[in-house]
Amino acid sequence: MTTGALHSNVLVLNHRFRAVHVTTARRAFVLLFKQAAEVVYWRNETFSTHTFESWKELSQFREEFEPCDDWVSTVSFRIAVPRIIRLLFYDKLPPQEVKFNRRNIYARDRNRCQYCGRKFPTTELSLDHVIPKSKGGRSLWENVVCACTSCNNRKAGRTPWEARMKLVKRPTRPRRNPLIQLKIRHEKYRSWKQFLGDAYWSVELKE
Hints:
This protein is of the alpha+beta class. It has helices spanning 2-5, 25-33, 52-65, 102-108, 149-155, 178-184; strands at residues 9-13, 19-24, 37-43, 46-50, 71-73, 78-80, 84-87, 125-129, 144-148, 204-205. It folds into two domains: 2-94 and 177-205, no CATH class; 102-155, DNA Binding (I), subunit A, CATH 1.10.30.
């Protein structure tokens, strides 16, 4: 479906082919149409670059011979969602730091409750301060973990030791962007690996 395809992820490279962030297909198509970016198509251990028009033409061939997971349909044509685009006039790299936010904490803990070890959908998880704020605990990577509703209620305002609960693993600050690590495991994003060098560890996901 077009709606879902427009929200799929696209790796964005700067002019020097270094990863800078991950955006949505919708935003990627805007950049391509404005000629601010080009498609980078990885195939058979090599890559080619394409304008919006040449990518549209190649998409017709790919639809027949290389079925793609994501397609966008317009009134007059169908076009494949590119996996990688390159900004034509941008050379900078993002800050070398993983943002401390709810999404990255869930990704770091892989949606597993850090007390019972079970995996849950995001809607059934919350964030827990290992050392509660009431006892001086701070909102840091090393003190915040995913917890399911049951474990969070059981622990309440106590430390794990007071609640006789044990952490699956000690929380730490990730050196690598946990969301990118999750994405790169997916088959349809395998082409990203070719362009994720040192910048891989600091790539930021955009909404």
